[in-house]
Amino acid sequence: MINLQDYRWPAEWELHAATWVAWPVNPNTWPGIFERIPAAFAEFVAALARFEPVRILAGGPGVADSARPLIDAACSRHGSRFVPELFDIPVNDSWCRDHGPIFLNGRLGSYAENSQIIIDWNYNAWGGKYPPWNYDELTAAAIGNIVNVPTLRPNLILEGGAIEGNGAGTVLTTSSCLLNPNRNPGMTAERMEDILRHWLQAKNVVWLPGHGIIGDDTDGHIDQVARFVDEQRVLLAAPYDDDAPEAEELRQNWDAVASAKNSEGESLIPLALRMPSPKFQEDARMPACYCNYYLANGAVIVPTFQDKADDVAMQLLKDCHPDRAIVGVDALDLVWGLGAFHCMTQQQPLP
After folding, report:
1. What's the rounded Cα separation, in Å, for the pair 340 and 314?
2. Does residue 177 have an active-site annotation?
3. Alpha-carbon distance 238 to 308, whole Å?
4. Containing H/E element for 346?
5. What is the pTM for the complete model shown?
6. Active-site position among 75, 289, 291, 343
7. Distances from the Cα of 65 to the Cαs of 22, 59, 70, 91, 206, in angstroms?
8. Is the bond into 349 cis (omega within 30 degrees of 0)?
9. Whole domain around residue 332: which residue ranges?
10. How far is CA 172 from CA 44, 98, 210, 237, 297, in A?
11. Smallest Cα–Cα separation from 346: which of 131, 128, 123?
12. What 8-state DSSP symbol labels residue 191?
């Protein structure tokens, strides 16, 4: 019998056994430029493989065969330490953060010490926006079978990009996403907090309004607007200009964090991570935001957008993570899919 109180949700900055990603296979996600996407994705994989093992969902006819040469060439250019592994698990889309598994680690000193479990939430492609999602719905269980980790299903819809944890019991999320009726109709904040306390062993939940990232199609995922640096500090997306159309909504997120406390009763400390100037594809604004970085073992993999703000963002991330390498990878094509590196990854922590 699994006792969830013996487990906790590790922070992303804790050591990883590997990172899971899903090879891009859906041309509709990147309309008009899909031919450029596999090579761009391979560059990202190679940058990540410099620091930790990368495990890639690459099922379906010809997917692995077409991916392998691109990955090998990119890894050779980057001097990657690890050879990415390809697994015959098909996907509908590349947003592994949202349809992949969430690992919990056994607490030190508990009966579950050195063990793990997977929480496998239901998935409906951000409120039914992008059918089909039949393969994506199965990825968490498939990964659990591969790594031989027990899988628990809450039978509720929740995407990994909608929650952010500090490893010590505080969870950041947004009301615009978690309370949206297109996920779990009739959901209330009180009920959702009970769910997060049970399944993720959260001690307290900090709600942000969400929104603020123009072009975001997730109804306001937290990983586009707010990221924990440590147990107290939170990086928050800040407008590229004080008069930007999203400025007021982003200020509301700032105010929510500035007035909140973590599970130890310590005030959260907001830090502004300014966005790049607006980026467009076919006259549509893309959700280009530096908050969608990914913390790998010893590194921060940062989406860059060929913008003067790239260097400023990377310097701030270096200040926040002085012991990590800061690696910028061009995401200007990838973000046309309406997400970047955090959306594309799901960490498998060391037990």
Report:
1. 15
2. no
3. 15
4. strand 346-349
5. 0.98
6. 343
7. 15, 10, 10, 16, 44
8. no
9. 4-349
10. 26, 16, 10, 14, 22
11. 123
12. H
The one-character DSSP state at 215 is T
Q: How far is the CA of 294 from the CAs of 33, 53, 161, in angstroms?
A: 24, 14, 12
Reported as a single tens digit per residue, the pLDDT across 7-64 is 999 999 999 999 999 999 999 999 999 999 999 999 999 999 999 999 999 999 999 9
pLDDT at 288 over 90: yes
Strands 269-274 and 325-330, by their bridges, are unpaired
In whole angstroms, what is the distance from residue 258 CA to residue 247 CA? 16
Do 49 and 80 form a contact (C-beta atoms < 8 A)?
Answer: yes
Joined together, the tokens standing for residue 167 give 């490893």
* CA–centroid distance for 68 within its chain: 24
User: Are the C-beta atoms of 96 and 22 separated by less than 8 Å?
Assistant: yes
Give the model confidence (pLDDT) of 126-178 as tens digits. 999 999 999 999 999 999 999 999 999 999 999 999 999 999 999 999 999 99
Could you tell me if residue 143 is left (phi over 0), alpha (psi between -120 and 50 degrees) or otherwise beta? alpha
The enclosing H or E element of 86 equals: strand 85-87
Number of domains present in the structure of the chain: 1
Task: Determine the Cα–Cα distance for residues 349 and 199; give it in Å rounded to an integer.
Answer: 17
The Cα 316–Cα 235 span in angstroms is 10
Alpha helices (H) along the chain: 37-49, 63-78, 96-99, 125-128, 139-147, 175-178, 189-199, 247-258, 309-320, 341-344
Is there a contact between 50 and 19 (Cβ–Cβ < 8 Å)?
Answer: no
Query: Got the DSSP string for 109-136?
Result: TSTTTT-EEEE--B--HHHHTS---TTG
**Tokens at 341, concatenated:** 């590196």
**Residues facing 85 on adjacent strands:** 55
How many beta carbons lie within 10 A of that of residue 262, not counting itself? 22
How far is the C-alpha of 311 from the C-alpha of 85, rounded, in Å?
Answer: 32
Angle at alpha carbon of residue 31, lines to 73 and 36, rounded to 5°? 15
CATH number for position 257: 3.75.10.10
